[in-house]
Amino acid sequence: MNKIVLVLILMFLFAPSLLAQEPPASLTIGTVYVDSGFNDIIVPIYFTFTEDVCNICAPIQYSPYLPDIYFRRVIDNRLSDCFDVRFEWPMPDEIIIWITRDLSLPPDSIQGTHLASLVFGVYEYARPQTISITEYNDPRMGDCMFGLCDYMNDIDPEFTPGYIYYGQPQNSDYDSPHPPAGFSLSQNHPNPFSNTTKIEFELAESGRAKIEIFNICGQLVDIVVNDDLMAGKHLTDWFGSSSNGVPLPSGIYYYRLTSGDFSQIKKFVWMR
Questions:
Q1: C-alpha dihedral sign at 209, 215, 220, 224
Q2: pTM of the entire structure?
Q3: Is the pLDDT of residue 153 over 70?
Q4: Which of 5, 17, 50, 192 could form a disulfide with 23 if both were Cys (CB 3.0 to 4.6 A apart)?
């Protein structure tokens, strides 16, 4: 009998915390279709949260990083005087968005609010392409995080990635950002590297394949592979030098695999 009473008392004391639910929170990147010829691309960002949230940290990354479409800035849509929107740009393809709520002002309706947008610039020679915008784990800040007003707890929001379809009609058959089955570009190893690194890739079908190296400014510095290859897995080396054999300075570089309609790019660090 005493055990039953004890169990009931414990259930009464802890039931509220067990039943309590985490406040809803989500971050959604918009998907836009843009015809060729536009100078700017504006991608909306939507947030859903409650009055318990006081600040937002959203590290996002866009891929592939190519020189013809590039990130320019984050704009504050100024739908509410309660929020201050700022951003950092640690890498050319990485953006950290900071949103802080002014607690001295009365809270307004903030459910599903469109507080900010990403602005990308487009060069005249930009070709049709698909760009994915996703979250990433920042070495300093971690993943996307909604901080609560107690300044002790935070919420991991549900994240929905977005896409830019440039030069592609909305009803086009080419509307998938995912590579065809069997095509893949692996992360180089070792990374970072100081002597040589290996790049592994896979082709779903035989044909021309190209591995290109770009510097952080998007300039082509070397072509590692440019051959007709059989379908299957392939491995190549890169030695940290330009196409004319000159050693390149240390820094962040990008390598891109292109074969038919497939294109994928990854980042590595070269340390002399």
A1: negative
A2: 0.55
A3: yes
A4: 50
